[in-house]
Amino acid sequence: EEFKTSVKPTWCPGCGDFGVMNALGRAVASLGIPGHEVVVVSGIGCSGKISQHFGAYGIHTLHGRVLPTATAVKVANRSLTVIAAGGDGDGYGIGVGHLVHAARRNVDITYVVMDNHIYGLTTGQTSPTSDPGMATKTHPRGAFEEPVHPLALAIVSGATFVAQGFSGDVNGLARILAEAIRHPGFALVNVFSPCVTFNKVNTYAWYRESLTSVDGDPDYDPSDRMAALSRIEATRGLVTGILYRSRRPTFESQLPGLGEKPLAVLPAGLSGEDLEDLLAEFE
Ligand code: SF4
Predict the structure, then answer these.
(1) What are the backbone dihedrals phi and psi of residue 144, each rounded to the nearest 5 degrees, phi first?
(2) Is the CB of 197 under 6 A from ligand 1?
(3) What is the number of domains present in the chain?
């Protein structure tokens, strides 16, 4: 509740992104982090609207540029909880190079990808995670390219926390997101977030039938990188829970300078004129 704004989301009724936003709110609230210490950096696509609707600071940035922007925020003020958010088109298409570099750098941010296997905002084109065979506006006879495999890509790129959730299970997703935010390092949480309007294949019902989970599996060890990759392969990626986690120093902890205090701190109670003056300094 605390993290909802008065702006009504323009997502289609039933869109999975509602579940992601609710789960994120619950996760942040469960950790007791106040809204003014949270920044949501989002990309372009239906998912990108989350930065406008979540009751924290928000930056709606350029297509595919979520992770460089979120990295800059974290480096400039390490006391902030930085949530990067976007969709599969934004993050695994134009932005996929940034995923590799953010993962290997181990920047302490949580990257939530609302993966609906389609471009929703532009009304239904094949995305980097579309399943082969799915008919879309750009592939009316069915997509035929091998999809991107985000969990495996993040693990082999050096991410220290890799998980997957489903927006049809808000409680489970909230628990995963809370762990991801608590994790000191780069965390990818890929979320199956159905596009109810343009993807009639990967529906809530389809996921409920198809998904497996590592949660509650006593034989599953998330610190075992090869086991994580094997489970992802064996389930064709249709697995939820915390697949992998490990620890190593974060990017920002190894940078010289800037660690003690934020790059800039604005005094409380600034007027509009004060802000105009500050902005003028950057012109
Ligand atoms: Fe959600 Fe799809 Fe509607 Fe976009 S088009 S708001 S992804 S249901």
Answers:
(1) -130, 0
(2) yes
(3) 1
